[in-house]
Specification:
about 250 residues, alpha/beta, Rossmann fold, six-stranded mixed sheet, four-stranded antiparallel sheet, 10 strands, binds adenosine-5'-diphosphate
């Protein structure tokens, strides 16, 4: 069963031109799909459509074999939007409490945290390297640390599908390395599907197993090898950029 199946998707905003058309792809457990494309090519719009926040003009989206319009099992999906200002900067919660918020969606009334919940939140903070910051006030942490707390909040609910919009753009180097080592581990465990946007071609090459390239239409969908051998992608990106994606840091050109 694919985790996400997109079938011939067309999208336009009211009174606007097509943002993209002809987008079809499938991803399943263990896939890490990176969405690439120039500014304005509809990458964020695609993520929002997958979340049911925007309605496509034409075409179908299914999550876990259910059309997104009827999908209700949102506890299986974790989303980290771009430039995360999800929380009031003066929100007087600790890092641990913010991480625990990721468990609220799965709770029925009364929504109280148990000791077990706090243990899970502590384990999630440990996973993002912030165990020692658990009792610090969230708003007093650095931007990179806040982003990692939000990743812990996402991970604590153990989502099967993780959607990330430019996760590294606000991160310092240490947080970025930590962030991607976590994503790589999730990917390697093979139970989760990760779908993320970046404009960093090297990052895409190092951490994705599949690529989707949007540019008004779907220019490419496939695995790394197909991407690196695609003469169309070479023509669209230029050989230097294609090389940046395909030449991974182990020194071996792909
Ligand atoms: P990307 O993430 O690739 O930069 P976006 O999905 O943010 O692209 O935007 C795609 C296009 O849709 C852009 O031309 C943008 O201006 C337009 N757009 C985005 N959001 C809206 C909106 N809410 N209403 C109208 N147009 C929008």
């Amino acid at each position: 069963m694919p985790t996400v199946k997109v079938d011939n998707l067309y999208f336009r905003y009211p009174n606007g031109p097509d943002v993209f058309g002809g987008v079809s792809f499938e991803v399943g457990k263990g896939d890490s799909l990176v969405v690439l494309g120039p500014n304005g090519s509809g990458k964020t719009t695609l993520l929002k459509a997958l979340l049911g926040l925007e309605t496509p003009y034409e075409g179908g989206i299914s999550l876990f074999d259910t059309p997104v319009a009827r999908f209700s099992d949102w506890g299986r999906v974790g989303y980290l939007p771009q430039n995360t200002r999800l929380l009031n900067p003066h929100f007087p919660a600790t890092a641990l409490e913010v991480a625990a918020l990721g468990l609220l969606g799965g709770k029925k009334f009364p929504r109280r945290f148990t000791r077990g919940d706090m243990d899970k939140a502590a384990a999630a903070l440990d996973r993002v390297g912030l165990a020692s910051r658990a009792d610090r006030i969230y708003s007093e942490l650095s931007g990179g640390q806040q982003q990692r707390v939000l990743l812990a909040r996402l991970l604590v609910g153990e989502p099967e599908l993780i959607l990330l919009d430019e996760p590294s753009s606000a991160l310092d180097n240490e947080s970025r390395a930590m962030f991607f080592s976590i994503l790589d581990a999730i990917n390697a465990a093979g139970k989760t599907t990760v779908l993320w946007i970046t404009h960093d071609m090297g990052e895409a090459g190092r951490h994705a197993s599949k690529l989707l390239y949007l540019d008004g239409k779907m220019r490419f969908f496939g695995d790394m090898e197909g991407f690196c051998h695609s003469s169309e992608m070479g023509a669209v990106l230029g050989p230097y950029t294609q090389h940046t994606v395909c030449h991974r840091h182990d020194g071996a050109p792909k």
